[in-house]
Automatic annotation (TrEMBL):
GO biological process, any: one-carbon metabolic process
Pfam families on file: ACT, Formyl_trans_N
Protein name: Formyltetrahydrofolate deformylase
Organism: Aureibacillus halotolerans
Catalytic activity: (6R)-10-formyltetrahydrofolate + H2O = (6S)-5,6,7,8-tetrahydrofolate + formate + H(+)
Signal peptide (residue range): none
Length: 299
């Protein structure tokens, strides 16, 4: 019997074989949507979904996401790039295009905590998270069995303060050019600038607090000591500044005086895994545009 993932992927590929997504960011001015939609129309494409946002209609930054279909996508793309570059020059656009059927390769980094990793693996196994997972890398052995039982390679690379440089070199050698996206699923090691620069705005972390509160290590203990009435989780792109990268998604839950630190962690685990899964899904579906240290998310 075919695995449910395979069946869902085959259905997805049939629907998305002729679809592509165009993301644009540029200074706002009249005529942008008309120029882009005309370019698509003149090449026989049909717009399926279009979302836009401007920071200031009198001259801010404009953001556009268009999902479109073309019966002849290969031929369409061979011509589109040249014409799009002309429009991009005219409107000073940053733009990127991706084919909906081109599944991104997602490498996951984890430590000992399993909840965020397993949420991603479960959604992948169910065919709900449309990515390829070339490998999982961990600085501990604890999660090997959970990963390998799904047929995904698991690589254990221990990390200590003294061996971090060598460990990262091994990680990067393993990842090579296999990762369109790296997800830190409660990976508890700070990545060096030399690592982060290899995957700009393509490393997603889940921080176990409602940022900007409680940046860094042990947020639940600090939240408990502070007597908070809300805890939360934040998924963000990784930058050199710890837990300061562009936020993609957040959520919170109520807690009270009866909850101890272990209660906060238990309640928090549900928030973390769902926040991370939403952020990863939106990134994979090309719904996130980074602008400065913020994001625009066309959900
Ligand atoms: N360059 C970045 N790397 C990482 C980020 C980030 O935003 N930028 N987020 C962290 C995840 N994280 C909180 O969400 C976090 C993980 C680890 C630590 C920390 O102090 N780690 C120590 C080692 C702890 C240990 O050995 O158990 C360290 O790396 O020296 C703080 C925050 C992931 N990486």
């Amino acid at each position: 019997m075919k695995h449910i993932r395979t069946e869902r992927w085959e259905k997805h590929d049939r629907v998305n074989e002729h679809r592509a997504r165009l993301l644009i960011s540029c200074p706002d001015k009249p005529g942008i949507v008309a120029a882009v939609s005309d370019l698509l129309y003149m090449q026989g494409a049909n717009i399926i979904e279009s979302s836009q946002y401007t920071t200031d209609p009198t001259g801010g930054q404009f953001f556009l996401r268009i999902e479109f279909e073309s019966a002849y996508m290969d031929q369409f793309l061979s011509v589109f790039e040249t014409k799009m570059n002309d429009a991009a020059t005219k409107f000073q656009m940053d733009w990127r295009l991706s084919r909906a059927s081109q599944r991104k390769n997602m490498v996951i980094f984890a430590s000992k905590g399993s909840h965020c990793l397993l949420e991603l693996l479960w959604r992948w196994q169910a065919g709900d998270l449309l990515v390829n997972i070339p490998m999982v890398i961990s600085n501990h052995e604890d999660l090997r069995e959970s990963v390998e039982m799904l047929g995904i390679p698991f690589h254990h690379i221990p990390v200590t303060k003294d061996t971090k440089k060598e460990a990262e070199a091994k990680q990067l050698e393993l990842v090579g050019n296999q990762a369109d996206l790296i997800v830190l699923a409660r990976y508890m090691q700070i990545l060096s600038p030399e690592f982060v620069v290899t995957h700009p705005h393509s490393i997603i972390n889940i921080h176990h607090s409602f940022l900007p509160a409680f940046v860094g290590a042990h947020p639940y203990e600090r939240a408990y000591d502070r007597g908070v009435k809300l805890i939360g989780a934040t998924s963000h792109y990784v930058t050199d500044e710890l837990d300061e990268g562009p936020i993609i998604e957040q959520d919170v839950a109520r807690v009270d005086h009866k909850d101890d630190v272990e209660d906060l962690k238990r309640i928090g685990r549900t928030i973390e895994r769902n926040v991370l899964a939403r952020a990863v899904t939106w990134h994979v579906e090309d719904r996130v545009i980074v602008h400065g240290n913020k994001t625009v998310v066309f959900q």
